[in-house]
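This entry is listed as follows:

___
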Amino acid sequence: MSVSTAVFQQGKRMRFLWLAVPLLLMPILLSRSAWPPETGPRQSIEFVGSAFIIICVAGRCWASLYIGGRKNRELITNGPYKYTRNPLYFFSSLGLAGIGLTFGSLAIAAVHFLFGYLVFAYVSARESTALDELFGDAYREYCHEVPAFFPRLGRRAGDGAHQLPVTFNPVALKRTAIDSSCFLLAIPASQLIDSLRFAGLLKPMLRVF
């Protein structure tokens, strides 16, 4: 697969993710948490969900500082790329799980995370073919040392064969921050949906934990 084909298909996959948003919203709109809003377990779950979303936004911006303007041009192996080859995808999946948690549901959080993991695993596998074509042995060595998705902690700061300085790309960082802000909308949205349910304007069909 050529690099140009990989980039084109990446655009198609990102459009697919946006089209999948209604599918991710359906279980939220059609169900409600088995824990009442004012109980300790519900508030704890929502707090963890908000924390996951904040980590998602911060992590995506962190990755953007290293990859911004360099994707498919240089092999990035420092920063968050020391721990996982796809930090943007990992943090995005964490954000999807956080969305489920802000609505008070462990089950929805698990489904959202699994959805993100499967989609991004497929995307990263296709991208890996293009990166192998671009960087050859250096990329294969990197794949051997760093996992594709789940971070492996404990790597020393000097690990990695291709350490590069941090490049601040304000355009890429701004774009990543704007894209990531969509995750933050889940926090006020959860309060809005609870209000609609309390007013009887939205009637869930299922109770989920």
